[in-house]
Structure formats: C-alpha cells, structure tokens
Amino acid sequence: xxxxxxxxxxxxxxxxxxxxxxxxxxxxxxxxxxxxxxxxxxxxxxxxxxxxxxxxxxxxxxxxxxxxxxxxxxxxxxxxxxxxxxxxxxxxxxxxxxxxxxxxxxxxxxxxxxxxxxxxxxxxxxxxxxxxxxxxxxxxxxxxxxxxxxxxxxxxxxxxxxxxxxxxxxxxxxxxxxxxxxxxxxxxxxxxxxxxxxxxxxxxxxxxxxxxxxxxxxxxxxxxxxxxxxxxxxxxxxxxxxxxxxxxxxxxxxxxxxxxxxxxxxxxxxxxxxxxxxxxxxxxxxxxxxxxxxxxxxxxxxxxxxxxxxxxxxxxxxxxxxxxxxxxxxxxxxxxxxxxxxxxxxxxxxx
Length: 351
Description:
Blueprint: H1 4-23, H2 27-63, H3 70-95, E1 106-112, H4 116-136, E2 140-148, E3 154-162, H5 166-170, E4 175-181, E5 192-202, E6 216-223, E7 234-242, E8 247-251, H6 256-283, E9 299-304, E10 309-312, E11 317-319, H7 322-326, H8 331-350
Parallel strand pairs: 4-9
Antiparallel strand pairs: 1-3, 1-5, 2-3, 4-5, 6-7, 7-8, 9-10, 10-11
Helix pairs in contact: 1-2, 2-3
C-alpha cells in the first residue's frame, strides 16, 4: 500500500510550486521552479487518478447497502477492483527516483569489434539503424567523428543526438552487439559471427563536469576524408587528451574552432559518464537497479540474419522481424528494457 502522507507531501509541493510560479520569479530561480514543476506534473496526475479510483471504489462499496443502488454497485465493483492493481503499479513507477540524465541529449559511439571487415560493415548497419530511429522520433542526429573503411564500414563513429528524452530511450543500447550472417565477401556461404560495441553517454553540461585546462593536451592534426591518398588534406583535425584519465577524443571537420568545441563536448560526456558510473558503483555494488551489469564489454544483443531474429539477452526478448529493427523500429525493444529496469528498481526500493 502506498503511504497517503507521502502522496499528500508531493501534491502540496506541486501546489506550492504552482503558486510560486504564478507569483512571479525570474532567472535561474524560475527555471529551477519550472523544471521541478514539470517533473512533478505527471506524478501528481497519477496521484489524482489513483485517489479518484479509491474514492469511486469506496462510493461503490457504500452503495451496496442501498437496496436501490446495490445492483448497479455490484455491476461496477469488479471493474474498479480490477483497475486498482494497475493504478497502483502506474503510481509506483511514477514515484520511482528519476535518472537526472534521462532528458539529456546523448553522445552515441560505435566501433567494430571482432570480425575484421565484416564487423566494420555491421557497425555501419547499427549506425544506420540508430539514424533511422532518431529520424522516426524527430530527433536531430549530428556526426562528430566519422571514420569509414573503403568497403563502407565503420572504423569509428561518434554522433550527437538531441531531442525529447534521448538518453532515456537510448541508454540501454550500450554494450556489445553481435551479428550472425554470411558476409558478402564469403564465397563458401558460411555464417560468420562478428561484433560491434555501442556506447551511449548523456551529454554533459558545464554545471555537470569541470575540466582543468592544465589536464588537457590539445593537438592539431592533418585530416583527410574518405577516398584515400587522392583527397585534399587540411590542418583542421583536433585531438584532445585528458591526461588524468587518458581519454582521447578527436574531431575532424573543416573548421578547427568547431572541431575543438565538438571534441570538448565528447570529452565532457565521457568524463560525466565516468563519474556517473563511479557514483553508481559506490551506491550499489551489485547494481541491482541496472539492466544487465552495465558493463560495455557485455554481449547484450544478437542479430541473426539467417533466422531473421533479434535476441536481447538481458531480458530474453526474441523478435522475428530483423529487417524492421534494422530499419530503426526499436520502440518495442526499448519499451521492454525500460519496463524491466523499472521492475528491478521497484524491487530494490520495496526491500
């Protein structure tokens, strides 16, 4: 049973925020009030719906004592009782602690793993999959770093994705993605297994992470695009090394100034993710609130082309519509992973 006094406190806080915003405020204070108000609104709506259901249930049970209303009450009572567990679960989910990074944009990194050229081609398939998913959700997908092979595979890709709840929808994609298929270069028709790694990092803001300029080594490099030795080169590529952690990021657009800004953006995201992982590890040694272990070396998903099958190993979800998934139809997978994560979190907080 959800404590009613806790629901009262949340509702009162929401009313206070509403009154404070109506009274007028400015600058950072108003922005902070508006964010908290926005975060609490769906919770308060769930509280109102839950309380209305309890009131309807109590009223219906009281009607059983009235001979003229008893038959109507007996008809309505089963439906109200059946709705109660779902309403309680929806409210419990709304009350779960929110990941502060959920609403943030994200940095997506894809690199080939074992499998040579075939792994690079599979990494390119994953890149297209996420680009199409972003397009379907109305997100913006900007390339920060893109290194391709001569066959059209991916050596390394870093992309910046902005839109509504980007990190919340993509954060469970981090890990090793495995593919089983016959490579186009395979003359014998044998099925090969290759892999690519995906990392999804929440974008860091200046208030999230501070970087000491003395901790950075910034190098300017000669860069070139796809096409090998017969293309023009420029001195625009920027490589930034964060000396304390050894993290290295690069960006190679035509504008050196823009490259530096983009590389710093990626560096902040990686350092922010590193700090989030450190805090999470300190909070929970067994990471009970996470889907899987959260380790990016963990194999999370297999794409089997001969069977047209995708299996997510963390939640034992198997779907036989691989073509649609590679076209960016990821919502069913993302929703299942999110529901599983919520269930784990609910179990952790009910202990």
